[in-house]
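Weekly modeling sync, notes
Attendees: S.R. (lead), two postdocs, one rotation student

Agenda item 3: backlog of single-chain predictions. S.R. asked that every request posted to the team notebook include the full sequence so nobody has to chase files. The rotation student volunteered to paste the first one in as an example of the format we agreed on. Action items at the bottom.

Example entry:
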Amino acid sequence: MSSSFRSKFRSVEIVTGPSLWASVGWVVLGLFVQTVAAPWLSFRHAVPSFTTIAIVLYALRVGGRRGMALAVVAGALTDALAGTAGGWTIADALVVLLVGAIAGGFFADGILPPSFLVAAAVFVRDGVFWIVMAMEGYPRGYGTTHLHESLWQALITGLCTLVYLAARGRYAGVSTRVERYG
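Predicted structure, as returned to the notebook:
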């Protein structure tokens, strides 16, 4: 048999879980709340990242490949509102790829592990964003300030995720099944 032989059989993936369009709605709602209510949600100049909550929880449920669609939409909308040139899109995409790699063996139905993962994702997302901004020529003198703000933002977003997941588990059971054949 030749080493260039390629099977025509492709794996089949059946996903029963959250709809992409409903998740896009959550991203838009999260961006709206983040933008409009930022003065009231701010703690030490850090605002919870509701878009990161949406994309990480979606990627945990459906995997990294399917989560990329939502990450690109969320990043593009955030870039459009922030006036940045793709930094948030790149950061969201990388975070979803990392979450997708973890999601294969991750228990997504709990409350604490996904909350910690969202907090870590916020910190990584901010780090990637500031690396991209530094490559675009953003001044380096604000590194310490952004590090402190990013730590507070990760903590606040993790707490918001904890509250959301506890309420969702109490009032609306959401189940997702991913079956892979092949």
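Discussion: group reviewed the output briefly. The chain has seven helices and two strands.
Action items: rotation student to repeat for the remaining queue; S.R. to check formatting next week.
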